Amino acid sequence: MKRNQPQTAHGRAGFAVLWSLLIVTALSGFTVLAITLAQGSSIEATTRARKVRGDYLCQGALAHATDSIYAALSSDSEVPTEGAMTLDGNPVSWTIEAIEGPTVAKDGSGLKSFDTVFGIYAWGDIEGVRSEARQVVNARQVPLFQYAMFYENDMHFTWPAPMQINGPVHCNSGIYFSNWLDLTFNTNSLAAKDGVFLRTKYAEWEPSWLYDIQTDVKIRKWVEDPNDRSAPIEFNVLQPERTLDRAGIANVSGYDSDFTGYDQNGDGHYGGRNDWMPFGAGAIDRFSSPDFYSGEGDDFTLKTHEHGITNVKIPPEDSMDMFVKETGGTHAWDSHLNEYVLAAGGSGTHSKGSYHAKAGLSIIQKANGSWQAFNELGIDISADLSGIVSSGSTYDARQANGNGRKISMATVDVEKLVDSGNFPSNGILYVAGYDSGQGTNLKGFQVKNGATLPQDFSVVSPDAVYVQGDYNTNAPKNAAVMADAVNLLSNSWDNSKRAGRLPRASNTEYNMAVYTGDTEATKNSMNGGPHNLVRFHEDWENKRCDIRGSMVCGAHSRKATGQFKVGNDYYQPPIRNWSFDEDFSELENQPPGTPQYVTLDNVVSW
Fold first, then answer.
1. Do 159 and 176 contact (CB within 8 A), yes or no?
2. Strand partners, 412
């Protein structure tokens, strides 16, 4: 049998060296593996970080794209199909595609809209790492002239004449009622975001005698279509403070948004015979459909923030401006001519405002009172309008505020404009003045002889427009006047008004929608309320002012800021016969360039 030989010292040393080499080799391998794994982990982490960063940037691009959709639709412009931008130093791009619509939709108040579904795709490469994001949104466009009355700021029905409002009403703020004559809302939609109140907003306005004579506000119960003659007509009311006081019911100012309820027997419920529900629930109960209503739908007429009413975002104030700031714009200011002129490609500081840009005819008044006219191609056609447009001045007591000075006025004879062949083909006449300011620095534009319009027609201005005489009364078309201030002059107006003299008005009719501004109400100054939104300048006592259309107050006036005043040489109010033009309930009957509010709802994102 073979025996194992004992190891020598030399053999043991060699064996140790061999194992050392094996261990070192193994350790080296493990180290390389560890370094490789660490490097891989680091690269993966870096890639992941870049991807996260890219995803956030793509979300920003989606937001920019949706803003572009909103801006385009709000100004009635084409929605861009693509765009690029730099976010946090990195380029990202996006595309927009209309994938469905526009289709016509209708909400519970009967307002109709154009709905379009857009698909948005955004992408970017962040240091070699690709990121992408997608979104589908539904864009809803609602023309504002579907409202009988729309207000951005508070509505003050302060001692109004008898009024019946027969169309939808919306207020982005609060509605204040202090009426002693009939005030009736024959509609299925009366909405006020901040609430409705049976008092004046400022105690300084409210005389003590109002308490004893203030009357109910009548509001129609909801039906699907108030214009349907077969629909039942039933009203309920908001009672003033006096009525509740006499019933022994604690209240602030009647049955309004401040009313917290009356629980006669204290059982914690409002179902008792003599209980009164708090306003939020009570409005639903009072103004829902009449008993045994057989029509479609189930809703209620009066709504506030308690019922989900939020602000309706309307077009920006500068949409009617002559020029707006824009980096790389089409125009720049010429200090020698004192006007904007075309700039070399991409070097301008301003571009035409949205209405100015799309007008079929523009009449621009210069600082010295002279004027120029341009067609839709921007070609000067002033010579063709000689005898149609004239320069002059007029006395506006509200703007003069006692100083007796006149404002500059350019007058457009619509009848002659039609006969000249220069009537705007797209129905939009834009009028504006350089160096237009407040007080008697305001630029005015008078539109006269407009009883017969050849087609749908809108007059748009960032300044003041004065409509003189019967307007759009012969075979009426869909017409609108949109301006910082809209003023009505009767058939008898001859421009003889001066400080201290109030000319006599005569019966006059206007068929048009109005988009304009009011003045801010303060505790020391009323603004006249909706019944004085259009401005008067004559003695209209016992004379009729017939208006059929829509009234939208989009903001406080920026230029025609003269405070509301009545009497003396300001004006005496007319017999108001105002009604909503029910034709405006249909989308196809909107005047050219009708302002609209736009909402964007996310359908899906990934």
1. no
2. 389, 447
